[in-house]
Predict the structure.
Amino acid sequence: MSDMHHNEAQAYQADPELVRALGRVAVFMGGDSAEREVSLKSGKAVLAALVSAGVDAYAEDVKGCLLRTVDNPQFDRVFIALHGRGGEDGTLQAILSQAGIPYTGSEMLASALAMDKLRTKYVFEGCGLPTPKFRTMSGADQANQIIGELRAPLSVKPSREGSSIGIRKVYTAAELAEAYEAAAALDSLVLVEEWIEGPEFTVSLLQDQALPAIGLSASTDHVFYDYDAKYLADDTRYQIPCGLAPEDEVRLQHLALDAFRVVGCRTWGRVDIMQDSDGQFWLLEVNTVPGMTDHSLVPMAARAAGISFEELVVRILKDTLEGADA
């Protein structure tokens, strides 16, 4: 398999004209968020693919004050491989926009919005898109009331962390109060939503097109697709084709594109969706800088569509040229 991938890597070279237009590319990775380690893996994979495709790229481990990154920059554009706060939440996007430096992915507003799961859900609701019923929680004393209003089991998550950090599944008010304390340690804003029992799907988007959907099923050790299942486990099962009937997959892809568009995202990203026992799809969240590691879902979906990792990163980067002309 690796040999085949190696040959494919040799095969894809970015057009020399494009390479010249792109100039020097900094791959921003690392950062200070809870997702630093994942970001370093993503960044290294992106960098290797860009270099392999012939692009003049180098790594920039972004730590501390983000404003320093645009002080006398040694680069023409940025491939953002930062996950979580600082890199994915609109902060960096605002700084680069202000400095007139083109960058990959969604702009400031969509990045900030998608990072905030609660406000993303308000947008979904306002646009009539299906998302599980939810409440916000600001104190453990609300547990009884929320258990009365929503149907257990419930999912409890910090509103603004990625990589499934801090998510718990609860059945009782006592468990909810305890899960609230754990989530509140990560974020003052805690989101509680009805747990959809059923398969989870993820749809990757590239240049306003939905790639083949992936069905996710973690092994029985993981209650759901959590941080370990996402990044560390080798027993997480990914299904491509995703197992849905063709017309259902098309419905799923359309829903993902709708979600991506209403949040205002650009170029690439990933939308996570659950399906209940009645076959109804429910939007969970939008990721504007999804993982790009060897376990990651966007490269996997791209491969299923015949797009190598090298071509994928070059296509994401190519959109920064259009942005610069706008």
Summary: The two ends are 41 Å apart (CA to CA). Residues 115-130+196-287 form a domain with the D-amino Acid Aminotransferase; Chain A, domain 1 fold (CATH 3.30.470.20).
